[in-house]
C-alpha cells in the first residue's frame, strides 16, 4: 500500500474520531450536503472528459426519458414481449434504447435510504443532489414533513437551468403532474404527498405552498411551456365536480381552480396559452398558435395503456359507478404535441418524458401492465425521434429506481412466453411458477399459485407470485440503466455513476447553468486519456475512486473543481470555487461522515412515516 493511501486512511480515521462528538452548525451542514453532490458530479465529469476528443458538440435539445421503476429486468422482459407481440421469439429483439451507443449504470440510493424512493430519486435525477426519503426538490437539509427545513434546502432543477439558457421546457407524464418524478422539476416540498393544500398541515399552509400551487405560481413552474399528464383533482376546488368523473370533486380547500388561474396568469402576461383536458382537445390543438399548454387528462394518474378506451377503473381497481370511458391520449400523442410546441424555439428545449405507471403495475405484482407501459414509453420515444435531430438532441433514457421483479427459468426454451411459467416445476414442492416473480408484494400466497389456468399467460390482470407478502411490493435497490444518444453521449454516459451525476452531465452536454462555461471558451483543451486503476481502497470511504483520481490530477499539476457552483432557489447567486487538493479530500471525507451519521438519525423516522403514507 502506498504512503499516500495511508495518509487517506489516517485523515479519514482522524476526521471521524475528532468530529463525531461535535455537532456541526445546521446551516453549514445543509450547504455542505449540496456541495458534496455537486463536487461528486464534477469529479465524475472530469473522469469522463478524459475520453473527450477535439469534437465536443453541444446539445441544443435534451429529452430525458424516465421509466418510473424501469429496472434492467423490466427492460429485458419488455424487449422480449415486444418481439413476441410481433410473432418473434423476442430475446434478440432490440428496443430503441438498446440501439443507443452509450450505456451506464446509476446508483439509486437516497441520502438516508438504501433502496431508493421516487421523490428523492427524482431530486437526484433532475436536480443533481441526493435527497432524503420522500422529500422533493430539497437537499439533505430538507426533513420529511418539516416545512421550516425547506427554507435553506431548495435546489434548482434541469428546468431552471434550461430556462436560464433561454430554452423552452416541457413535462409529459402518465402520472399525476404533481407526482414525485415530475414535481421534482418545479417544486420544493418536505413531503411528496403535499400535492394540494388539503394534504399540507393547516399550521404551515401559509409558509409552504402545496405542489400544484407551486407549479402555477412559482418559478420555474409558471414558465414551463408544456405540462401534460394527470392529476386534475389537485387543481380543482373540493366543491367542483371533475369534468370527466362527475361523481368526484377536486381536493383543494382554498377554493381555487388552478387550471383557470394558470390560464389567467398567462393571459395577463399576453402569452398564447391553452388549457385542455380531453384527447379530442389535444387532437385539435394547433401548435402554431400555442406557446403554453396545460393538459390535465385525468382525475388522478392517467389510465394504464391497457385500459385506455376501455371502461375506466377507479383507483382501487374496482369499476367506477359511472362506467366512464377513459379516453386518455397516449404518451406518444402527448409527446408529438409537446414537441410541436417546443421545437419552435431556436434556442432549443428540455423535455421530461415519463412513463409513470411502470412502477404502479410493479407495486401490484402485475408484470403485464409494467411491461406494456414500458413499451408505451418506447413508442413515445420513437415518436419523439421522428421530430428531432439526434445530432443536436441529447436523449437520455433511465429509471428513477428499480423494482423487485426477477426473471429466470430452468432451461426454458427460446421464445417461451415471457409472461408464462417455467416449463419445469419446482424440484422441491412440484408446483409451477412464473418466469417473472417478485421479491415482495400482494402476489404472495401459500401454497404458491399460478396467476392463470393451464398455459394461458395473457391475462392483463395476472398477479405474479411474491416471496414475501406485502400490500404493495417494495422498490428494488439495484442500479438502474442509463442509455444515451446524441451530443457527448458516449463520453458522459459510461461506467457506474451516482444518479445525481446525470443532470450535471446533461448540463455539460447542453452548456446549461454551472456547466455553460465550455461554450464560452473559444478552444477546448481536453487532456489525453490518463486512466489509472486505483492502487488502493481506503477503508470506510465509499467513494474510493475519488481520492485516487484526485491524486492523478495532482500529479499532473491540475486542480479539481470542488463545487463549480451552489445553486440556490434565488437566481443570480451562483459562484465558482476552486480549492486545493487536500481541501477537496478533507471536505469529501467530512461530507461522507456527516451523510452517514445524518442517515442513521433519520432513517427509522422516515421509513415509519413512509409506511403510513401510500406510496402510489
Ligand atoms: Zn413506486
From TrEMBL:
Essential cofactor(s): Mg(2+); Zn(2+)
Listed Pfam families: Alk_phosphatase
Entry EC number(s): 3.1.3.1
Cofactor-binding details, from the entry: Binds 1 Mg(2+) ion.
Residues forming the catalytic site: 118
Binding-site residues, Mg(2+): 68, 179, 181, 354
Subcellular location(s) of the protein: Cell membrane
Binding site for Zn(2+): 68, 359, 363, 400-401, 475
Main location: membrane
CDD domains: ALP
Gene3D superfamilies: Alkaline Phosphatase, subunit A
Protein topology in the membrane: Lipid-anchor; GPI-anchor
Keywords of the record: Cell membrane, Glycoprotein, GPI-anchor, Hydrolase, Lipoprotein, Magnesium, Membrane, Metal-binding, Signal, Zinc
Alphabetical list of InterPro entries matching this protein: Alkaline_phosphatase, Alkaline_phosphatase_core_sf
SUPFAM superfamilies named among the record's database cross-references: Alkaline phosphatase-like
GO cellular component terms, A-Z: plasma membrane; side of membrane
Family listed: Belongs to the alkaline phosphatase family.
Protein name: alkaline phosphatase
Source organism phylogeny: Eukaryota, Metazoa, Ecdysozoa, Arthropoda, Hexapoda
Amino acid at each position: 500500500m502506498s504512503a499516500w493511501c495511508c495518509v487517506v486512511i489516517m485523515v479519514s480515521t482522524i476526521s471521524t474520531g475528532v468530529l463525531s462528538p461535535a455537532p456541526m452548525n445546521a446551516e453549514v451542514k445543509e450547504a455542505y450536503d449540496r456541495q458534496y453532490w455537486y463536487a461528486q458530479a464534477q469529479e465524475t465529469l472530469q473522469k469522463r472528459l478524459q475520453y473527450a476528443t477535439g469534437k465536443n458538440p453541444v446539445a441544443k435539445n435534451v429529452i430525458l426519458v424516465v421509466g418510473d421503476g424501469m429496472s434492467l429486468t423490466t427492460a429485458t422482459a419488455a424487449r422480449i414481449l415486444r418481439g413476441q407481440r410481433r410473432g418473434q421469439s423476442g430475446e434478440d429483439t432490440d428496443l430503441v434504447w438498446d440501439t443507443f451507443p452509450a450505456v451506464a449504470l446509476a446508483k439509486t440510493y437516497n441520502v438516508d435510504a438504501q433502496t431508493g424512493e421516487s421523490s428523492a430519486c427524482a431530486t437526484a435525477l433532475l436536480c443533481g443532489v441526493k435527497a432524503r426519503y420522500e422529500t422533493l426538490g430539497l437537499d439533505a437539509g430538507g426533513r420529511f414533513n418539516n416545512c421550516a427545513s425547506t427554507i435553506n434546502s431548495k435546489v434548482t432543477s434541469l428546468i431552471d437551468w434550461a430556462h436560464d439558457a433561454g430554452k423552452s421546457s416541457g413535462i409529459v407524464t402518465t402520472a399525476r403532474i404533481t407526482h414525485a418524478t415530475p414535481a421534482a422539476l418545479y417544486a420544493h416540498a418536505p413531503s411528496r404527498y403535499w400535492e394540494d393544500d388539503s394534504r399540507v398541515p393547516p399550521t404551515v399552509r401559509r409558509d409552504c405552498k402545496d405542489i400544484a400551487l407551486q407549479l402555477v405560481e412559482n418559478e420555474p413552474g409558471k414558465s414551463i411551456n408544456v405540462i401534460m399528464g394527470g392529476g386534475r383533482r389537485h387543481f380543482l376546488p373540493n366543491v367542483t365536480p371533475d369534468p370527466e368523473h362527475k361523481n368526484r370533486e377536486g381536493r383543494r380547500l382554498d377554493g381555487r381552480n388552478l387550471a383557470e388561474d394558470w390560464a389567467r396568469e398567462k393571459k395577463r402576461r399576453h402569452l398564447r396559452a391553452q388549457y385542455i383536458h380531453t384527447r379530442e382537445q389535444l387532437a385539435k390543438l394547433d401548435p402554431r398558435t400555442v406557446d403554453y399548454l396545460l393538459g390535465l387528462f385525468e382525475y388522478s394518474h392517467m389510465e394504464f395503456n391497457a385500459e385506455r378506451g376501455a371502461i375506466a377503473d377507479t383507483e382501487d381497481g374496482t369499476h367506477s359507478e359511472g362506467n366512464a370511458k377513459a379516453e386518455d391520449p397516449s404518451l406518444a400523442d402527448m409527446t408529438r404535441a409537446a414537441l410541436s410546441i417546443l421545437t419552435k424555439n431556436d434556442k432549443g428545449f428540455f423535455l421530461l418524458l415519463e412513463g409513470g405507471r411502470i412502477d404502479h403495475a410493479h407495486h401490484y405484482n402485475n408484470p403485464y401492465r409494467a411491461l406494456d407501459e414500458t413499451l408505451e414509453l418506447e413508442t413515445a420515444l420513437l415518436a419523439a425521434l421522428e421530430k428531432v435531430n439526434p445530432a443536436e438532441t441529447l436523449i437520455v433514457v433511465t429509471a428513477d429506481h428499480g423494482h423487485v421483479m426477477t426473471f429466470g427459468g430452468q432451461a426454458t426454451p427460446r421464445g417461451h412466453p415471457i409472461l408464462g411459467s417455467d416449463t419445469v416445476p419446482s424440484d422441491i414442492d412440484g408446483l409451477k411458477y412464473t418466469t417473472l416473480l417478485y421479491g415482495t408484494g400482494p402476489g404472495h400466497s401459500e401454497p404458491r399459485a399460478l396467476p392463470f389456468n393451464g398455459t394461458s399467460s395473457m391475462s392483463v390482470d395476472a398477479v405474479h407470485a411474491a416471496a414475501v407478502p406485502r400490500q404493495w411490493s417494495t422498490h428494488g435497490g439495484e442500479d438502474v440503466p442509463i442509455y444515451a444518444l446524441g451530443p457527448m453521449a458516449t463520453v458522459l454516459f459510461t461506467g457506474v455513476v451516482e444518479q445525481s451525476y446525470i443532470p450535471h452531465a446533461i448540463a455539460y452536454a447542453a452548456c446549461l447553468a454551472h456547466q455553460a462555461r465550455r461554450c464560452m471558451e473559444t478552444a477546448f483543451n481536453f487532456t489525453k486519456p490518463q486512466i489509472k486503476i486505483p492502487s488502493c481502497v481506503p477503508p470506510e470511504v465509499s467513494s474510493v475512486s475519488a481520492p485516487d483520481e484526485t491524486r492523478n490530477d495532482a500529479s499532473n499539476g491540475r486542480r479539481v473543481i470542488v463545487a463549480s457552483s451552489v445553486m440556490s432557489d434565488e437566481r443570480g447567486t451562483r459562484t465558482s470555487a476552486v480549492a486545493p487538493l487536500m481541501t477537496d479530500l478533507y471536505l469529501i471525507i467530512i461530507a461522507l461522515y456527516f451523510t452517514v451519521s445524518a442517515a442513521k438519525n433519520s432513517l427509522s423516522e422516515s421509513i415509519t412515516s413512509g409506511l403510513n403514507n401510500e406510496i402510489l
